[in-house]
Specification:
131 residues, five-stranded mixed beta sheet
Length: 131
């Protein structure tokens, strides 16, 4: 009977471990990214927002070369993307958006946050707000 108790305890531990693994897999559903992707055009920008899963958060950095803070924000987002792999991090040059007249250098860098195809939040002139 003593050995039977040890075997029962071992079986229970294995069962609990398997249940925890199953639950973890169910809770961590969806695509994983882990990198900052470059969007090449306004079409890719729209496609990234509209064709993504409704539960995925998308953060888009609109930048331009030579604008203060854009390079630093790109490197920060690269680190964040590796840490928060369930969030899709993208960047696009303002001149490639097709709406570069709206994104002059005085509003860059800009961060746009989308979820379910809808704009959730925007941060304009990020370097002025966060130094």
């Amino acid at each position: 009977l003593i050995n039977g108790d040890k075997e029962d305890e071992t079986c229970l531990r294995k069962y609990r471990k398997r249940c925890m693994q199953d639950m973890h897999q169910r809770l961590s559903f969806g695509p994983k990214y882990g990198y900052l992707s470059e969007l090449q055009s306004g079409e890719q920008f729209l496609e990234a927002i509209e064709k993504e899963r409704k539960t995925t958060t998308i953060i888009v950095h609109i930048y331009e070369d030579g604008v203060k803070g854009c390079d630093l924000l790109n490197s920060s987002l690269t680190c964040l993307a590796a840490e928060y792999c369930m969030v899709r991090f993208c960047k696009i040059k303002a001149s490639n958006t097709g709406a570069d007249d709206r994104f002059s250098s005085d509003v860059l860098p800009t961060l746009l946050v989308y979820r379910g195809g809808e704009l959730v939040s925007n941060f304009i002139s990020v370097t002025e707000q966060f130094n």
